[in-house]
């Protein structure tokens, strides 16, 4: 950051300094104009203060979310303590609450989503940055980013009417036939359940992971690629040694950002996961996630303890996503810092 | 051919094969990723266009069992909530971005705010919803358009802040220094020189944030709540397009499913139009920067 910080004081200095170049005579019109206009110091400092206030409001928002969630979940925090997260019971009628089934549902669906999305996203990023003919690059990037612009509820709508029947009638039976022996595909398959939620989540987090990975791979300097190619490597070896190895921390960061999104995704998951708090080995079984139990039960929560338990689930979701996002951001920053600005 | 050359040849064949194999995988992955997008868009246009009619834009929802009805009140309601959110979110977001780019460079506080904004960007929207519910709705004892606006505004702020900052960082220092050298106060330099030069990029950022929250459902579930009738009061529950789509999608009635598809098509078209406008703005900005 160069000098500008001291420059604004200039007009004030001119006005305060009474010694003109030609002593005695009347001040020049410019000098007279500047001295009667006065100093911008007050305006400057109040402008800076207002900007600072707005910037600090971002802190305030995070602090406020945290404090209001703690305040409103107080009842449940006191009643159940840490055991809340290890108990399996979810019985609103008896006032007995535990978050374990939802934690399981969230982790399982997000893990499934990553399992499907990560290899595909890496493939897309490699294709766009290294293999794609130049004229195709922009349209494909645009198409994958278009996926990110589709609202969650529209994904949900599509999933309910297209993906669920597809899972029930085609993909489900196929999985039972080929992978039935693993025990992951048991029980009756209604089309809604963990697997369907994982698939729709994968479709939703793909654009985030692939566009970030693309940016990170583009930040790898070309000299790295050229060096590896000059040693006689094939294109794939160049990508593996020259590009992927250099950007692995950033790619892990991108995956974690995708994970952060998957953990908190609400609407589409609520519409296809079956909304039943249960822990089962079968991927066909209906389940429930932290976010979808809030969406599904919050408005019909009767009784303070029920509401408080749901808000505590929100608090847990908030803290987990903050930690995941913070780690991810640090990783992405570590790689892209100092890289030339994004080239779209 | 001695042994060594032979093994090298074999090795080379293996490497070439791996190369082709992986390239094919990458191409396949791209096709697999683009397929659902195309499927979603086509199905949406097919289902949506066949259910769209004039009544959709002029009527409020019909009671169960009656044919017809539309989502006019949801479209207007979405408009009201989004206007509220933009009025609150955009000024704060831009101001915070200005602070980061013009005053907070290299300071601890600046970095901390940047980091917090990035983290806030990843907070699930449902958490925003229950926080605003706890703060506004619990105090007021009723759902309101105003609460929905606040929830969406909070979601807009971090995106706008970060893009504003990035765009201001691309303004050359020479222009700022020229203005300051002429005796222009700093605040005036920021407003008329930096912000003005970066304005296409900043508008892009604002519209992206707008497009992102326009489709949000989760934060509105417990704040705006939805309404089957006309409502123009900021202090009352109000209908919103994404909410109405959700309600109709999980309902058991075919007629409502039809309306949900039509609503989704209208929502997507609205978002696509703003994203396309963003592209046009961004391109114009890039051209301006070159000259």
Overview of this structure, please?
The complex is a heterodimer of chains A (344) and B (291). Chain A is built from 14 helices and 2 strands, in the order ααααββαααααααααα. Chain A is mainly α and 344 residues long. Chain A folds into 2 domains: 3-72, no CATH class; 79-336, MetI-like (MetI-like fold, Orthogonal Bundle), CATH 1.10.3720. In chain A, helix 3 (41-72) packs across helix 14 and helix 5 (100-131) runs parallel beside helix 8. The two termini of chain A are 26 Å apart. Chain B is mainly alpha-helical and 291 residues long. Chain B has 2 domains: 3-51; 58-290, MetI-like fold (Orthogonal Bundle). Chain B is built from 11 helices and no strands. Chain B has helices at residues 3-51, 54-58, 72-103, 108-121, 125-140, 145-169, 173-181, 186-214, 218-221, 241-249, 254-290. In chain B, helix 1 crosses helix 11 (254-290) and helix 5 (125-140) crosses helix 6. The longest helix of chain B has 49 residues, at 3-51. Mean pLDDT of chain B is 85; it is low at 286-291.
